[in-house]
Amino acid sequence: MATASGSPSCRKHRTASSSFSLAAILLLISIMYCCPAGFVVAARERSAAAGGDSVMKERFEKWAAEHGRTYEDSLEKARRFEVFKSNAQFVDSFNAAGGKKSPRLTTNKFADLTNEEFAYAYGYAPVSTNYPTMRNGTGFMYGNVSLSDVPSSINWIDKGAVTNVKDQGKDCASCWAFSAAAAVEGIHEIRTHNLVSVSAQQLMDCSTGANNHGCNRGDMDEAFRYITGNGGIASEADYAYEKQQGTCRASGKQAAASIRGFEYVPPNNETALLLAVAHQPVSVSLDGGGSVFQLFHAGVFGAGRAETCTTDLNHAVTAVGYGTDEHGTKYWLMKNSWGSDWAEGGYIKIVRDDAASTTGRCGLAMQASYPVA
Q: What GO terms in the biological process aspect are recorded for it (predicted)?
């Protein structure tokens, strides 16, 4: 009886299971017939995501090897990978959307830093706004020069008045010192035909006026005042850069270059800036923030439509030329202090005669000055 009663029960169970399986299969088939694209798209998306991450990880490992990047543990490496991936996607998207005039970005040595981390590590600090009002157009020695008397383009690098690109390093907002140093190097070579790198470290240690604070921001005009009052500035070889502020050790150092003073370029006037740069390298303040500046590679910043910046003056560079590129875009040639492996050998071209702004692109015409020798 047990066997007899068990057999029908067992057969009934199999029948129910078979019915359920058949119903599930029929439901799955009906869903696939109803929306087969959904299954295909979902599968492809999962596959693409897995494959994309794999490709991106390979790209990250190659980048890390090229830049000698190592991390303290696997968690930090995983976090840096996510930052790199975000930056790489931004670079790829930006480059894909750009036209022939647009600049190009790249996953450079800053590609594993968020823009906020980059701004902190490379010491962006507000430049002083204590910019004097120009009185009756005086104090600008090139004010009576006509545009017809200056060249349509000039490159002080080619003319031998620019030293090699320096690297201010992480956690030190010393761009102001390098900008002032480059301007002094330029006018010294133009006057003496002797090109020498002067000491940015001396400016950090010794030019400590109200607005100059070593790695915590500074003004080029105060640096020029210090050099004038000190009777000159030592060479970089004699007073090397240390990436931190120290005690002033200028006493007994021989001056490698000297100046008689400095002048301001009339603000918000790119024509006046051009007249000055036509005669010598000029210190310039601008907005150097933003991911485009951070990851810049080549071309003219501002020639496309996606390069945004403000007039928040938080970085200092040196204008060492101007010109027009093959697409007819007028540009300024700026020397930076983030090393020669950033942008085009450490230099960046920024659009000139910006019709959209009287301040110049990124505020570059707002606060410029140059030494007088």
A: proteolysis
